[in-house]
Design a protein that fits this description.
This protein has 384 residues and is mainly α. The chain has 15 helices and 4 strands.
Length: 384
């Protein structure tokens, strides 16, 4: 333990001697959180600006529909004509527009739930039309159902519609906070953290190759320090630095950026530590198959970047085809992100037994192969 402690101090002092290393190991995870906040933190419900055109001659049903739209929360309505409406939408002055064409009220009296005379315009897509469309469709469907029941009886329709319009009961609503963007920020922040943890662990394990290249490793072995002690010290240093990355990232997310991950730190922290062990084992595996630091660097780019991409570390995995998503089942990053998603859905920590077992299996498999490769690699002439 004394030798391991000495080697750890030596490695940490050499590693953090330059400010570049401090930025590489601790600064990049912080930047990852800020990037995630920038990507998903601009969530703002805002006010929808809706233009309305009445081409139905000012009928009572059409006017009531317009007043319904005007009464929607977070909607700013403007009555205009069709030419001005299209011009303002194209110029960005309006988010969307509603055109009540001639015969709109007649189609409702006939019981048509989706009248052709009602047109919804927008150049911004469903993100600005979904709310108004959903609310207006519900209102139109209710009025159209009266038309279907009265079957052309104008007096009967007017009586039922009057009772519907002047209904005595009231509906109270309570607005709740949409936390989906916080969960997206958490997912993306942890995705960046996973990537930086993998690259950091490989960079630290590459120190073994670097000291073999400059013969420091052989000089250390001529002392009472064994090769096993040297590798254990390197693993301990990697674990300490990855531990610091996890602590800094979680602290920044919760206490600085005020990101509500929806997951208790007591549950999130041990899963990340288990993945840290898998990252260290993978780094040793990469180093065991490399004959130089340049070769290890090329191998880590070949392995880490594509696997993080397939696992959804850089963007949500839902946007990828199912065939590609199936590949991620064979990657440790997927099982960590899947654990986070399950915890955000409210699953109990005890239900993550399979995910934890798979992460542990990845760690054990990588470590065993690395140990086998290190045991078989006795060639000291490759570093000249």
């Amino acid at each position: 333990m004394k030798d391991i402690g000495w080697l750890m101090r030596k490695t940490l002092m050499n590693t953090f001697r330059s400010k570049k290393s401090l930025f590489l190991y601790l600064g990049l995870p912080i930047i990852g959180v800020f990037v995630s906040t920038f990507l998903y933190g601009n969530f703002n419900g805002g006010t929808l600006k809706v233009g309305v055109v009445d081409q139905d001659g000012g009928s009572a049903l059409t006017q009531d529909a317009i007043r319904f739209v005007e009464g929607l929360k977070e909607v700013e309505m403007t009555v205009t004509d069709e030419a001005t409406l299209k011009k303002d939408i194209a110029a960005g002055k309006l988010d969307s527009g509603l055109i009540f064409g001639e015969g709109f009220s007649a189609s409702l009296r006939a019981g048509t739930e989706q009248p052709e005379q009602l047109t919804l315009l927008s150049v911004k897509g469903a993100q600005v039309t979904a709310y108004v469309k959903a609310m207006l469709q519900g209102y139109v469907a209710n009025v159209a159902s009266i038309g279907r029941e009265t079957k052309g009886d104008a007096a009967g329709f007017d009586a039922l519609y009057s009772a519907y319009r002047d209904q005595s009961f009231k509906v109270t609503t309570e607005q709740v906070t949409d936390t989906s963007h916080n969960k997206d920020m958490t997912y993306q922040s942890l995705g960046f953290l996973i990537t930086f943890m993998l690259f950091s662990s490989v960079n630290l394990s590459e120190l073994i190759l670097g000291e073999k290249e400059n013969r420091t490793f052989l000089r250390l072995l001529s002392s009472p320090i064994s090769a096993r002690t040297y590798v254990l010290a390197n693993v301990a240093v990697s674990f300490v630095i990855l531990f610091a990355q996890i602590v800094v990232t979680l602290f920044l997310m919760k206490n600085v950026m005020n990101i509500d991950s929806g997951v208790s730190s007591a549950h999130l922290f041990p899963i990340l530590l288990l993945f840290a062990l898998a990252a260290i084992a993978l780094s040793l595996l990469i180093v065991s198959f490399s004959k130089s630091r340049a070769g290890a660097g090329a191998l880590q780019n070949l392995i880490i970047t594509p696997t993080c991409l397939l696992s959804g570390c850089f963007f949500p995995a839902e946007i990828m085809p199912d065939s590609v998503r199936q590949i991620s089942n064979f990657l440790p990053q997927h099982w960590l992100l899947d654990s986070v998603e399950k915890l955000q859905r409210g699953d109990a920590f005890g239900s993550l037994g399979l995910n934890i077992a798979i992460l542990f299996a990845f760690s054990a498999a990588f470590a065993l192969v690395a140990i086998y490769r290190f045991g078989r690699n006795n060639d000291t002439k490759q570093f000249v």
